[in-house]
Design goal:
The protein is an alpha/beta fold. Helix content is about 40%, strand content about 20%. The chain has two domains: about 55 residues; about 270 residues, Metallo-dependent phosphatases (Purple Acid Phosphatase, chain A, domain 2, 4-Layer Sandwich), CATH 3.60.21. It starts with a helix and ends with a strand.
């Protein structure tokens, strides 16, 4: 064998050895992968065997549908009925209609819904007491000249009409609601005033609604606890929490981007410096909204030409119902579509 042949034979042996070593390395890696796969499959098989061996397929969670835990107070918020005001559907693109007959039906729907919602929630908790918050503007009044032309009743006639409907509603709640006590905090609104301009310190003294509240509080006393505000705010202590109620007209809202949220938050922060409250409840703005700190009520009258003029968002006529739990505070809030 020549020297060149020996050289090439040596190169072939080296190349063959390297190829064999590389193949062995690949086989080793492949073997390790197979081992890992087998180990994984064995674990899955063991889990499957464990699940298959269990004989609990016929078991279920034991639930006592009649069990009740805790205690709560029901809240029904009534405001902004504007009972004698007329809404002609032709003036608002047929989005709403309102007159005395429709107002009476919606009032009946409101009190009926309070009873139904209370019974629904009693399936899970004990509800012995109801707070029926009367937050004002149950009448529109004559605070603008146009209202003298359009209202169905005069302020005095409206006062008598509204009083009759509230009495019927309270009697329904007393007779059919199975409540041990009905608490009625009352706030006067800005529409039921006897003057053209709003009064501040003497607002109660110049309010048809305040007069109605005083009459009701003296005539309906059986099972009912009245709290008639002479100032803008009234405070209600429920369990260990304080609730502040007011009509809502002192809030300054000029249609900003944040809606009601920013002015309400600012007002609450200022009021809490004097007397703190855990929750604010108010009406006036005809908008049902809620926040951990406050609840804004809707309206019974619904969308109107005035709402259209000021570019208010459309909202169907509605009031508010919520539960206030003895340990957790406000736990649920529902609209009452009337």
């Amino acid at each position: 064998m020549t020297q060149d042949e020996q050289k090439w034979a040596h190169i072939e042996r080296i190349t063959s050895a390297k190829s064999y070593a590389k193949k062995e390395q690949n086989n080793k890696k492949q073997f390790e992968l197979y081992e890992q796969k087998i180990e994984s499959l064995e674990k899955q098989l063991n889990v499957f065997k464990l699940i298959s061996s269990s004989k609990n397929t016929d078991k279920e969670i034991s639930i006592n549908s009649r069990s009740k835990t805790g205690e709560a107070t029901a809240f029904a918020i009534a405001s902004d009925w504007h009972s004698e005001e007329t809404v002609d559907p032709d003036t608002i693109n047929n989005l709403n209609e309102y007159n005395l007959a429709i107002a009476e039906k919606r009032i009946e729907n409101f009190f009926g819904a309070v009873l139904r919602l209370t019974e629904i929630e009693r399936a899970g908790t004990n509800i012995d007491n109801l707070v029926l918050a009367l937050l004002g503007d149950f009448m529109t009044g004559y605070i603008h000249e146009e209202l003298i032309e359009g209202n169905s009743l005069s302020p005095v006639e409206t006062l008598l009409w509204v009083k009759d409907k509230i009495v019927k509603g309270i009697n329904t709640l007393r007779n059919k609601g199975r409540f041990k006590k009905i608490i009625i905090p009352c706030c006067f609104g800005n529409h039921g005033r006897t003057t053209m301009k709003s009064r501040i310190a003497t607002g109660a003294k110049n309010s048809f609604e305040w007069l109605m509240y005083k009459w009701l509080s003296e005539s309906l006393t059986d099972g009912v606890e009245w709290q008639v505000a002479t100032g803008y705010h009234t405070y209600l202590n429920i369990y260990d929490k304080t609730i502040r109620l007011h009509h809502g007209d002192s809030l300054s809202y000029q249609g900003g981007v944040g809606g009601l949220t920013i002015p309400v938050e600012k007002a609450i922060a200022q009021w809490n410096k004097g007397r703190s409250a855990n929750l604010d409840v108010f009406g006036h703005w005809h908008q049902m909204q809620q926040n951990p700190k406050w609840v804004s009520n809707g309206s019974l009258i619904g969308y109107s030409p005035y709402a259209l003029k000021i570019k208010a968002s459309y909202e169907p006529p509605q009031q508010t119902f919520f539960l206030f739990d003895s340990k957790r505070g406000r736990t649920g809030t529902w609209p009452i579509f009337v």
